[in-house]
Amino acid sequence: MRVAYFDCFSGVSGNMTLGALVALGVPAARIAEEARKAAPGPFTLEVTDVRRGPIGATHVEVRVGGQHSGQHSGQHSGQHSGQHSGQQGHHPHRAFREIRSMIAKAALAPPVKEMSLRIFRRLAEAEAKVHRTDVDDVAFHEVGAVDAIVDVVGTAAGMAHLGVSRVVCSALPLGPGSVPSDHGELPLPAPATVELLSGAPVYGVADRFEWVTPTGAAIVTALAQAFGSLPPMRVVAVGHGAGDDRAARLPNVLRLWLGETEGPFDADAVCVLETNIDDLNPEVYGYLVDRLAAEGALDVSLAPIQMKKARPGTALRVIAREEDRERLARVIFRESSAIGLRVTRAERMLLDRRVESVETPYGALRVKIATGGEEILGLHPEYEDCRRAAEARGVPLREVLEAATAAARERFGKDPRGGR
Q1: Which of 34, 155, 298, 400 lies at a C-alpha separation of 20 to 30 Å from 386?
Q2: Peptide bond into 381 cis (omega under 30)
Q3: What's the whole-number average pLDDT of the chain?
Q4: Is the pTM for the entire model greater than 0.90?
Q5: Are residues 338 and 386 in the same domain?
Q6: Do the beta carbons of residue 209 and residue 73 sit within 8 Å?
Q7: Highest mean pLDDT among 157-161, 226-230, 233-237
Q8: E strand or H helix at 334, and its extent?
Q9: Which range of residues forms the domain containing residue 284?
Q10: Distances from the Cα of 258 to the Cαs of 13, 191, 212, in angstroms?
């Protein structure tokens, strides 16, 4: 499995990420080609080899209509106008709904499109929360919109080009100071950056620069399955992406490690939502579980517990994707008596799974096959198929389940690909 580690000792921004990806071997032309599929206006990429202190690095600058984008580490992106799309500003604006539509309609590979939409949604949600407006109405400067799309789509295309399936990020430095915006000076870290980094490990530094831009924060928090130190891996390459030159304690460089792990398992990150309830009608729990499943919960569990004053209660535990967290929390609050939730981030190790059909005395039945690399680690007949077959033939369900398992073992026992 390919692993990318964001070593953000001098922070992270969109153009620093692009520079590190180019340094790792992603063609700049490929980044530009993919970004043009979604960008609402013309742009060019300027790629130069530079030095930041003693470190040689790749600097990528997005030029929109002959202008500097201004989105670099140490310069605020100018994105969070917080205006509704119908309002007039110094430059024309594009609402997030327009940007989302452009990316969704672009001729991008599905993984690139999904990753791009995930990053941009995080950015828009943070801006919406800061400005107390609807996500769809969050507006981006025309220049900032093109620049952010290039950064986001280019990053997604670069990750796909490198075959990265797992991202880990270091703790992030944050400095004091202020940055100009449409609304005057804003404190650093920028309000949207603060919102985006909720739950991520950060630490303070004395240098008064914008170490982490909103786009940089959106990229790492949307892509990272974990935060922490360099994970175990075999190093394939290291790319250095340059931000603007500045007089700081450390060179303004993002170090992006590319490595490989030997294990056969995939991995991702999830949110775990938990609460203890002791005053809900038990008849409601079944409905609550069904509603959570319908809204995208990966898993829902209920466990009996004893709460304060020896009252019997129920522990509700929901495993969810990060992007589904708010929606599922709303379901819990609406459908139960919970008044608070504990939210933690966790990693999952996953087997590769697929569904195959096998022939049995009871007809064709589907079986889930779970593999780790070239090893089959689980054969699981589809319950509903087996139940229908048992009812139709008038035989015990367990016999149909055993027949489906035996047929799958016969076909796939030695060859995960099912060769005959």
Answers
A1: 298
A2: no
A3: 87
A4: no
A5: no
A6: yes
A7: 157-161
A8: helix 325-335
A9: 266-349
A10: 18, 31, 21
